[in-house]
Amino acid sequence: MRYRRAALALLSILFAVCVYRAVTQAITVDEAFAYLKLMNGPPSLVFTTYDACHHVLYTYLARISIAVFGVSAIALRLPALLAGLLYFSVVYRFCRWLSGDTWRLLLGVAVLSLNPLVLDFLVAARGYGMALAFLLLAFYEFARFCAGERDPGGGRRLTRSGLWLSASIAANLTMVFPALALMILAAGVVAFRRPGGWLPIQRYLAAVIIPAFLLMVLPFSHAARGNFYYGLPALFDTLRGLAALSTSRAVPLWALLSLAGALLAASAAALKQAISVRFTMWSAPVWTLLISGAGLWMTAAGLIAAHHWFQLPYPAGRTGLYLILLFLAQLISAIEWGLGQERTGKWMGALLGVCASAMLVLFVGAFRLTFFAEWDFCRELKPMLATLEKNRPAGKIIRVAGSFEYETCVNFYRIKRDLGWMQPMSRDQLDSGDFYLFTGMDWRRAADRHLRVLFTDPVSHAVLAAP
Q1: What is the percent of the chain with per-residue pLDDT over 90, rounded to a whole number?
Q2: Mean pLDDT, residues 143-160 taken together
Q3: Model-wide pTM > 0.90
Q4: How far is residue 60 CA from its own chain's centroid?
Q5: Which of 42, 159, 196, 360 is the most buried (most CB within 10 A)?
């Protein structure tokens, strides 16, 4: 009981933190860009426009939210907060199902919920966090189906898993890679067990494909190859980036590969042991370990194939969140499986438990309350704009110039606050202005302009300056 209470207390605190961040943090570049491109105009925009920023299901819900509550950062972020509540709920249910009321319940909840990059996107008004919540729910339902839990509906749990997977894809198209992996695994499990023939898998595939198609067909019909531009040239760059954004430090590649190798060894040992017993006797830790491990490696294979065949870039930061989820699910499943074994398995579980604890220390050390790691230069945007308004010449319409990253943010607040004394910031007008907003990198390049500094962010080194 005490571990359950501790886990619930941790998740309650984290959700309160997410609400606080959603209310207090300034709008970011990508949030403002999505609003200006898809929501600052007629409702038909969401059906006739496609861009990488169009996270379809999230855009629909955010559009409804600002229609009800007005234009604000918190209104745009409300669907992300609700997705965060869902994510925390599923994390608790999944870990309790996997570990019962043991210390591993608290460890699993902490590992899955304290990653700073995951927390960022349970706040930011983008579809990544929502898609991650639905992906975890789909994985949880699929694992319970595989574990043979009583399902009076004759495959309804598998169908529900498909529906949640469909919602994940609709919330963010990047989830198509883990979705394909889970679909292949589901077909394999049903083919092996044959519960009711092929009808369950037919229902499952229909549940995955049809809702996502209906939600996305109109905007996606306007997509072009150039819309899929964001990413990295190498998979190792993806791994390093995800680790750095999760821990706020450079993690050696050998450490990541060593831990991945240990998890692969644990999965192989679990599979070898499971083959020797009846298929229906596999435990929940065995199923989750094998599903998450197979899903992770199949997803990586899909990314590599898409890169070589279609020249799609590898995930960068937020677009690879599903890799974090599958990796962490595999980690806590391996710990649970290993500690239930004897000799080598128990030692392996204990060693992975130490690795998970060390990972938690890094997560807590990187915990952030006032900014998103991928847009840290927006951290002090609100006080910067307040300083700008305080120093502007009375009765004059001013022009803001500087780094192009601030263009959408400034224009969002100009619309929200009805700032008639400010011209719209434009990428074509960045060389001269009455005030300048610079990221830390651009400020170093602009040092020869002899501008006077009005405000500096000590974290990102962003600067508000004037001639």
Answers
A1: 62
A2: 76
A3: yes
A4: 18
A5: 159
3-state secondary structure of 311: coil
Distance CA 368, CA 248 (A): 10
How far apart are the C-alpha atoms of 419 and 414, rounded to whole Å? 5
How many Å apart are CA 98 and CA 328, to the nearest integer?
14
- The mean per-residue pLDDT over the stretch 329-356 comes to 89
Q: Which residues share a beta bridge with 465?
A: 436, 453
Per-chain mean pLDDT for the chain = 90
Q: How far apart are the first and last CA of the chain?
A: 63
**Does the pLDDT at position 152 exceed 60?**
no
Residue 343 has pLDDT above 80, yes or no: no
| C-alpha pair distances (Å), 272 with each of 189, 223, 256, 277, 417 | 17, 45, 24, 10, 63
463-466 and 400-402 as β-strands: parallel, antiparallel, unpaired? unpaired
Which pLDDT score, from 0 to 100, does residue 274 have?
Answer: 76
HEC readout, 248-271: CCCCCHHHHHHHHHHHHHHHHHHH
- What lies within 8 Å, CB to CB, of 10 at 6+ separation is 106, 109, 110, 113
The SS3 call for residue 453 is strand
Backbone angles phi, psi at 401, to 5 degrees: -125, -175
